[in-house]
Amino acid sequence: MNKHKFIFPQSSYYGKGTPENTAFNEKLQEFSHKLNYISAFQTAGKIPARLAYIQVEELWQELKQTKEKLDSAK
């Protein structure tokens, strides 16, 4: 098994199977997994709250940009 697939498993997509929808779903799942890791690291005291906030904000902006790109491609 691929280590990346083990750490970041992908669930099946059950919505309308357009390329834009599946691409956004993949990015949304990636966002969720990374958010969980950031939260766990902050909760365990491995990173400070401010750094966790900055990382979450960067992830959010990345997800937002992906959504805007996919919407403009329609």
- Gyration radius, to the nearest Å? 14 Å
Number of DSSP E strands: 0
Number of helices: 3
Shape category:
flat
What is the straight-line distance between the termini? 35 Å
Order of helices and strands: HHH
**Structural domain tally:** 1
Helix proportion range: over 70%
Please indicate the percent range of residues in DSSP E strands (runs of 2 or more): under 5%
Taking the sheet with the most strands, its summary is: none
Mean pLDDT: 88
Structural class: mainly alpha
List keywords for this structure.
single chain, mainly alpha, 3 helices, flat
Write the layout of secondary structure elements.
Layout: H1 3-7, H2 19-43, H3 49-73
Helix pairs in contact: 2-3
Describe this structure in words.
The chain has one domain. It is an all-alpha fold and about 70 residues long. It starts with a helix and ends with a helix.
